[in-house]
Task: inverse folding
């Protein structure tokens, strides 16, 4: 049985009090919302904070509303709420689908949007018990100085494995945060960095408070695709999000394609505006977009699944995403 280490659990009633606790116990504290990822990681001794600050009861982090041309999503809203909410299902159906594809209902009822945004990266050599990792000699991400994925590598390449960020990025979402130093807003594209040890700009004493998504234009079509070993529970081996804006003549006005689970951060496929803008999405163009995504996707051996197969699935899922998006009203 894997047991938790001793720690002190704090349950503040307002955001300001939570921020004060993070400041007071700096260096030995972590925020916790649903805890569906953090608690198992604590049992594996990947994290051992002396203090946990609960966020799920903070009213400032709740609510899903339409406001000033945006859908505002509270970071403490559960993934089930996100998947089922009428505003999300009507305006952001692919986000509802991404949230509903995570794990299973019991996890989704507890896990939160903010927790999914801040989900720790995953790797074959990291998400193991302390005994297993010690026998291997630890790794670059935790307790060691060797990367077992990239021999001689000096940067951790543990994989970003969250489901909601790719579609939120494709939709142009912003993330709002709060810390003892104040509040700030960051484009979700810029929030993630290519460092598997800590793959976001978020500071240890900073809390994600909400996500803000622009209301989609009438011609925007979206899709979310997820590759995994089973149809439920599993983390993605590949996730892919598409947002394409069409004019009244079905010509491309904008296109965003984001792939994730291949590296430490979600990757926006480049060059698609030049390739597709002003064109109709005919079969030849779809194939060229699929090839472009394949060329820019290079998975690493950080998950126990063949990397060439995962890469080969990229164009397959691009085709599926585009055709599904075009079929939606």
Result:
């Amino acid at each position: 049985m894997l047991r938790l280490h001793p720690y002190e659990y704090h349950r503040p009633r307002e955001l300001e009090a939570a921020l004060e606790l993070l400041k007071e116990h700096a260096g030995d504290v972590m925020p916790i919302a649903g805890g569906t990822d953090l608690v198992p990681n604590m049992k594996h001794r990947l994290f051992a904070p002396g203090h946990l600050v609960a966020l799920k009861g903070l009213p400032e982090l709740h609510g899903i509303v339409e406001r000033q041309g945006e859908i505002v999503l509270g970071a403490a809203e559960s993934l089930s709420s996100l998947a089922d909410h009428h505003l999300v299902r009507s305006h952001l159906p692919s986000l509802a689908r991404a949230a509903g594809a995570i794990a299973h209902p019991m996890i989704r009822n507890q896990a939160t949007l903010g927790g999914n945004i801040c989900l720790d990266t995953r790797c074959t050599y990291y998400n193991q018990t302390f005994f297993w990792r010690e026998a291997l000699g630890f790794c670059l991400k935790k307790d060691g100085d060797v990367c077992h994925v990239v021999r001689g590598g000096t940067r951790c390449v543990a994989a970003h494995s969250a489901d909601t960020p790719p579609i939120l990025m494709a939709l142009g979402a912003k993330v709002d945060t709060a810390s003892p130093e104040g509040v700030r807003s960051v484009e979700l594209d810029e929030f993630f960095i290519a460092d598997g040890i800590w793959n976001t700009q978020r500071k240890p004493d900073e809390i994600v408070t909400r996500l803000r998504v622009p209301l989609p234009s009438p011609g925007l079509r979206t899709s979310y695709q997820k590759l995994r070993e089973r149809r439920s529970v599993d983390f993605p081996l590949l996730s892919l999000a598409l947002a394409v804006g069409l004019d009244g003549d079905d010509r491309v006005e904008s296109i965003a394609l984001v792939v994730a689970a291949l590296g430490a951060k979600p990757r926006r496929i480049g060059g698609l505006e030049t390739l597709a803008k002003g064109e109709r999405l005919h079969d030849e163009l779809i194939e060229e977009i699929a090839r472009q995504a394949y060329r820019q996707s290079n998975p690493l051996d950080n998950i126990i699944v063949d990397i060439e197969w995962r890469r080969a699935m990229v164009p397959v899922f691009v085709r599926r995403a585009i055709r599904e998006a075009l079929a939606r009203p």
